[in-house]
Amino acid sequence: MGQRILVLLLLVFIKIFIIAAQTDPEDAVALKALGSSWTNTPSNWVGFDPCGGGWVGIECTNSRVTSIILTSMNLTGQLSGDIGSLSELQTLDLSSNNLMTGPLPQAIGNLRNLSFLCLTGCGFSGPIPYTIGSLQQLRNLALNSNKFSGPIPNSIGNLSNLLYLDLTDNELSGSIPVSSGTTPGLDMLLQTSHFHLGKNKLSGTVPPQLFSSNMNLIHVLFDNNNLSGIIPSTLGLVQTLEVVRLDRNSLSGPVPPNISSLANLIELSLSNNNLTGPMPNLTGMNLLYNLDMSNNSFDISDVPPWITSLQYLTTLMMEHTQLEGPIPANLLSLPNLEIVGLTNNHLNGTLNIGTTHTSLLQRIDLRNNSIIKITGGNNITILLEGNPVCENTDQVTEIYCNVSTSSSSNLIPQNNCLQIYCNSDQVASPNCKCAYPYKGTLFFRALSSLDLGNLTYYFAPEESLNQNLKSYELPVDSVSLSNPTIDSFGYLELSLEVFPSGEDRFNETGITMIGYVLNKMSFNPTRLFGPYFLIADTSDYHAGSNKGRSSGIIIGAAVGGSVLLSLLVLAGVYAFHQKKRAERAIEQNNPFANWDLNMGSSSVAPQLTGARLFSFDELKKYTNNFSEANGIGSGGYGKVYRGTLSTGQLIAIKRAQRDSMQGGHEFKTEIELLSRVHHKNLVTLVGFCFEQAEQMLVYEYIPNGTLMDSLSGKSGIRLNWMSRLRVAVGAARGLVYLHEHANPPIIHRDIKSNNILLDESLNAKVADFGLSKPMTFDSRRNYVSTQVKGTMGYMDPEYYMTQQLTEKSDVYSFGVLLLELITARRPIERGKYIVRLVRNAMDKTKELYNLNEILDPTIGSGTTPKGLERFVDLAMWCVEESGAQRPTMGEVVKEIETIMQLSGLNPNSESASSSATYEEAGKGRSHHPYSDDDFYYSESFPPSRLIEPT
Questions:
Q1: Phi and psi for 676 in degrees, rounded to 5?
Q2: Distance CA 790, CA 797 (A)
Q3: Mean of the pLDDT values across residues 229-237?
Q4: Residue 700: C-alpha distances to residues 460, 615, 709, 732, 912 (Å)
Q5: Which of 6-10, 205-209, 374-378 comes out lowest in average pLDDT?
Q6: Using omega within 30 degrees of 0 as the cis cutoff, is the peptide bond preceding 278 cis?
Q7: Which residue out of 750, 759, 796, 934 is catalytically annotated?
Q8: At what angle do helices 868-878 and 807-823 cross, to 10 degrees?
Q9: From residue 98, how far is each of 47, 66, 93, 148 by CA, in Å?
Q10: What value does the mean pLDDT take over residues 673-686?
Q11: Which range among 65-69, 414-418, 724-728, 765-769 shows the weakest confidence by mean pLDDT?
């Protein structure tokens, strides 16, 4: 009886505990999972109730977590897929945590309510996931100052509410994406004010389509890239522009004349390019503050007379721009002019400073010109080294001819607390109080040059920044800005110190909020300085902060110990109550968490048919210790090795590298699906290994590589019409098996030429089930709502727009594959979509439907392929816009079989080497069918998923 009473009491306590909790259980589990993958989390991240427990950096609304702000916290670790479970999250700011590394998970695309995403100054790497385009509520996207690589995802063009886009200072490559057919692009961002793409490895041209008169762009910052070609005239259509930086690229050709219509522009920097033609006339830019045209190859000309019409001009930089002749007398009389840089030109005559120059004029740099005389010039820094005037000491003092460009690196006012002595790890504030300041660096990106010694002529930012922080009710005493420098990228850097009020240090909430407030861009010192970002220096500050916390931790530990015993039983029972919920959440984000490595009778690993669990040591033996000699390919996922089983069977082993292990779902899906689907036109899974933190898939070895390699000529195989028909019918039969005979039915979701492998007889085998989706009984009657995944160019536009997946989505992809078979063209090539290209060129009244110029010339070997028109009709039937109007894969197979009969082929015969031409490339050929050289795998969902050996 006593035990029953105790149990009842515990149940009552548990119910009270659960009712008292203010956090949605799913959100609580997700946050605990996130925290468990990080170190240096806030000190009060304990318990199971983040909302009720007031966790630092966490804000909630109606029990749901809506905000995570953990800036400048020295967090270490990776952002796991658990983040995708916080479905009500609106703000995520993890900026200035440079030890946050690894890829950005695909699950970020599940945060459909997210409006503010800031990861500035972290260490994230790998491609930006395409799923970022699913965040329809996103208004601020700041991924700058990381190590992201690969192309800019086209899907960002889907973010119709985006106002701020910052991808600066990464390792992004490829072209600037614009829309094409069903493919989105940055030109669709009509509401966006900021395009910050500087300091990357972007190449190609600046697409003319990128700009239009409907845009609200304020800043276009494409500096410090590898962009080439001309400046598009469409740039002049964006009348809202205030800052344009195209400097430090390889742009060429003339500057479009209509750029002068940008009447709101305050800074224009085109320096360090290969621009030619006449110096552009910028008369219409009445608000221009800063102009930098340096280091280009413009036509030789006098100093443009229109410069004197720019009444707001403060900085004029035209170094090495082929200028000649005298300097106009009225140039130096511009009322706001401060800096003039005209070095390395052919200017001559007399430099007449006179008395008409403005009192703001600080520096004139005319080194390496042909100036023969100077008059006036008191109280102005003038640099004339390399001019004839310096050869005559009677005409000019030495100060003009000795190179001296240094200037003070301190801001005014100076610290007047010389009599204040602080501890070695403290700093005296401007108000003469010793404290541990919040430290960081502000980077301003709209100034390519200024006089650092006279920075206070431009603005006095400290007080305005101080007031800005206080307006958010932060305990700020004062702010100090110092050490201004211009870095090699043309960015102004200012050292920042923010001092606390009332205490000698900020608490954890204060640390996070200072970074967040500055990341919101609410501080606007002046338009002249343009956009900025903050990189906080957390190491020194947190060292002191941890010391301050030690006493509180001791007290907290003592208090916690006094109640620990009374809560122990309650917490234990509550933890058991939460166990199943937590296991479900963990399984969603780590599908291997409950797999028994011993594969015993109690194992919860899936029941596999025909797939063997290999040990790590076995695969190590079969591949000669994963030697380079056995390596046959590599890609973003990892490496592929050839091995030989003890039975003599050749195998291909796909081994994931450690930083791409986030593809757990795809790994498990492929194992479970491939182990129970068996068809001669599907690749065979031999086994797998997930021992010693490894993820490896073992496949049958397919000797002739991918269909893509054959169509491109890379494999040395040339497919004629007969062999292409056999490939088409084989791949179609594999899909029919998945759609109609697998239990439950399976949608492949990523049909493309790179996922069709060719065996020794050129039989087609469908591969790569990492994105496949099983269809439940109920879903067969309609569709499955799911996150969009696949490869651009092959993707069903209906699925892309509605996120409703059906078997007809595979049919659409197969239709694109059929067009690829007859054209040997990429689905998206040079901005042209193959479906639209064929549709526009088709004329059924003409021979071969008027597609002669589009067809692969090797397809017929000099003869007209029989049944080609019918084949084209089938392909276009498959790519109908509405899935309801497309055939089933069963109907596709029957139609291809009919075409084969018309061509004199037996649809049931096996492929043979006689149906293709082999071109021997020699023993030294480096290409191999399992190399990951997918030359048009440009936009995929997700880019870092498992890729079938290719």
A1: -120, 5
A2: 11
A3: 97
A4: 69, 17, 19, 20, 19
A5: 6-10
A6: no
A7: 750
A8: 140
A9: 27, 24, 13, 13
A10: 85
A11: 414-418
Dihedral angle at the C-alpha atoms of 570, 572, 575, 577, nearest 10 degrees?
-70
Average pLDDT over residues 685-713: 85
The token duo for 899 is 């075409």
β-bridge mates for residue 791, sequence order: 940
Reported in sequence order, the residue ranges of 390-491 that DSSP labels E, i.e. its strands, are: 427-428, 434-435, 438-444, 476-486
Complete DSSP assignment for 516-548: HHHHTT---S-GGG--EEEEEE-HHHHHHHHHH
pLDDT of residue 11: 39
Question: Taking every pair of C-alpha atoms in the chain, what is the biggest distance, in angstroms?
Answer: 114
Residue with tokens 């100093």: 303
**Bridge pairing between strands 650-656 and 696-700:** antiparallel
Q: What angle do CA 832, 836, 840 make, to 5 degrees?
A: 110
- Which residue has 């009445």 as its token pair? 286
pLDDT at 716: 79
Domains in the chain (CATH in brackets) are 302-402 (3.80.10.10), 427-537 (3.30.70), 612-700 (3.30.200.20), 707-941 (1.10.510.10)
pLDDT of residue 381: 87
Q: Is the Cβ–Cβ distance between 35 and 4 less than 8 Å?
A: no
What per-residue confidence (pLDDT) applies to 356? Answer: 60
Report the C-alpha gap between 736 and 746 in whole angstroms: 10
> Residue 447 — pLDDT band, cuts 50, 70, 90?
low
* Among 91-95, 211-215, 909-913, 942-946, the least confident range: 942-946
- The beta strands (E) that lie in 47-122 are given as 58-61, 64-69, 76-78, 91-93, 99-102, 116-118
Across residues 539-565, what is the average pLDDT?
Answer: 41
> Which is nearest to 505 in space by CA: 552, 425, 554, 438?
438
User: Which among 695, 696, 729, 723 is positioned nearest to 711, based on CA atoms?
Assistant: 723
Question: Between 807-823 and 889-902, two packed helices, what is the crossing angle to 10 degrees?
Answer: 30
Record the tokens describing residue 936, joined without a space: 């048009």
Average pLDDT over every residue of 212-221: 95
8 A C-beta contact, residue 67 and residue 89:
yes
pLDDT of residue 115: 95
DSSP state of 309: G
Note the pLDDT tens digit of each residue in 562-613. Answer: 434 444 444 454 445 555 554 454 444 445 555 544 443 333 445 556 678 8
Cα–Cα–Cα angle for 228, 234, 238, nearest 5°?
120
Tell whether omega for the bond before 744 is within 30 degrees of 0, i.e. cis.
yes
Taken in order 830, 835, 838, 840, the sign of the CA dihedral is: negative
pLDDT for residue 604: 42
Query: So what's the pLDDT on residue 876?
Result: 96
What burial class does residue 254 get, using C-beta atoms within 10 Å of its C-beta: 0-12 exposed, 13-18 middle, 19+ buried?
Answer: middle
What SS3 class is residue 39? Answer: strand
User: Tell me, what DSSP letter sits at residue 939?
Assistant: S
Per DSSP, the residues of 549-575 read HHHHHHHHHHHHHHHHHHHHHHHHHHH
CA distances from 625 to 40, 360, 691 (A): 38, 71, 15
How much is the pLDDT for 831? 74
Q: Among 866, 888, 763, which residue's Cα sits nearest to residue 815?
A: 888
Tell me, yes or no, if 750 is annotated catalytic.
Answer: yes
What integer is the mean pLDDT of 72-85? Answer: 91
Task: State whether residue 370 is helix, strand or coil.
Answer: strand
How high is the pLDDT of residue 243?
92
- Nearest partner of 286 among 313, 259, 246, judged by Cα: 313
Rounded to the nearest angstrom, the gap between the alpha carbon of residue 679 and the centroid of all alpha carbons in its chain is 39
Secondary element (H or E) of residue 27: helix 25-36
